[in-house]
Amino acid sequence: AVWLAGLPWSHLLNRSLDPWHGQALWFQAGALMLGGWAIATGSGTTVQNRPLGWLIAWWSALVLWMWTRSIVTQKVYPLPLLQGAVHLLILVMAYLALTTLLRPESFRTVGRCIAWSTVTVLVYGLLHCLSLDQFFEDIDRVNKTDRLVGTIGNPSHFAAQLAVLSPWLWTQPGRFWIAVSLVAVLFIGLCGSMAGVLALLAGFSYWSWQRWPRWRVIGLLAGLSAVAAFSVLSYHAFHSHGRLEVWEAFYPIFVKRSITGFGPGFVTEFSRTITDDSLLLYGWRHLHNEFYQIAMEWGLLGLGLVTWLGWQTVQRIRQASVSP
Fold first, then answer.
1. Contact 90, 31 (CB under 8 A)
2. Which of 28, 48, 181, 284 could form a disulfide with 169 if both were Cys (CB 3.0 to 4.6 A apart)?
3. pLDDT band at residue 274, thresholds of 50, 70 and 90?
4. Helix, strand or coil for residue 17?
């Protein structure tokens, strides 16, 4: 509960890092410690997950092959590849911790802790609206306006964060949590994030469809969709911010190794080779498109395994007797 509920505030433990890296460090440290604890104590049982198993095998083989080839042909150790290998290990440990240590009887406690953590995040968002924030600044130093960035440093990411946290609010009983959920919707709209609005609508559609009469759900979703469309369009959320041009520029590189990919961390390392700030790809350490990034680094084989994993996860959620 502390690991998951404390994630939005973990940046306060190390202010020398930006909010993104601060929260990543908290997640990574927690995953390694809890995953190690699950192995040491032999808690629970391992849940069968074939796509994840094949994805781990493919990623490990890709890193090992590229590591060995670099040593043989170039006589150097490709240390940046170790970053991808460590990230793989952390994902495995996080999966192990969640599937072995999170028991059905403790699920409600964890959910309630996450819900109250979300309340504190919304309160800090209110401080942003009043220009009273102190600890979490806009990660875009060039921007001079006081934007609504919450505890994650970016309006779009704040909206996505609230969209992910909102289902934990819906599971709590009482009018207070209904009011909190409405505040979360308001803040997502104020952020003007298309991804955040769509994620919220998708989650709410699934949650409400299982609990309420269909005609009521359809009418409610129609109203919410109209409000969401107005919010998103009014904030020009469909602007690509140069990403379409960057994706097009990366495509000739992608087709050279479309099946196997260039290896974990390729885009970041490639960006370091571009030192001329007048070039289109200067400073693009991430493609801002997870599917494209996976295809670029893990190849179409890796993208196919991730798609399989996502499909199986959705099927398991649909088959679960109780779902958040």
1. yes
2. 181
3. confident
4. coil
